[in-house]
Design a protein that fits this description.
single chain, alpha+beta, Jelly Rolls, six-stranded antiparallel sheet, 5 helices, 28% strand
């Protein structure tokens, strides 16, 4: 993938040119049409995504049926991380809202970077951890907002499902 595609991505802003080049060389760029599923709830991980252009809707299908929209992600978002890290199934689906372009880092390359001890790997690990903390803070804010609602206004799914890392 062209390194310049990562220049405007906040996740990679702490990486120097050498590190950004190394990560970009492991990624492929993919295009998705409006409505396409980038990730499907329940599937096993294939990689981590960086949204380069467009936006995606993250939704979770409930056991009783129906779906809940969790968040809309815009350019620069990293998603699909937790299923890659823990080897579990995807906890939510990600659908293109309009045309979308993503950088995809295969699971093996992502795990090599997460397990590595090179300066590039350590910078990458720091960037991923900071991104995960950002998601945890956003989740905490959302849970506080839900807790402040009267019981009759809080959907039960919101209280029983943690939204941390559902993408």
């Amino acid at each position: 993938m062209d390194t310049q595609r990562l220049d405007g991505v906040p996740l990679f802003s702490s990486l120097d040119d050498r590190a950004r080049n190394a990560v970009a060389s492991m990624m492929t760029e993919r295009a998705y049409p409006d409505g396409a599923a980038l990730l499907t709830q329940g599937e096993r991980s294939g990689g981590v995504f960086v949204l380069l252009e467009g936006s995606i809707r993250v939704e979770r299908t409930l056991p009783a049926g129906g779906t809940v929209d969790l968040v809309t992600l815009g350019p620069g978002a990293l998603f699909g991380t937790l299923a890659v890290l823990d080897g579990g199934a995807r906890a939510a689906s990600c659908l293109a809202r309009g045309p979308v372009r993503c950088g995809v880092l295969p699971r093996t390359a992502f795990m090599d970077l997460m397990d590595g001890r090179t300066p590039v790997a350590l910078r990458f690990q720091h960037a991923v951890i900071c991104d995960l903390f950002k998601d945890i803070r956003a989740t905490n804010r959302r849970l506080v907002e839900l807790a402040a609602l009267p019981d009759s206004q809080v959907p039960m799914e919101a209280l029983t499902d943690s939204i941390i890392g559902l993408q």
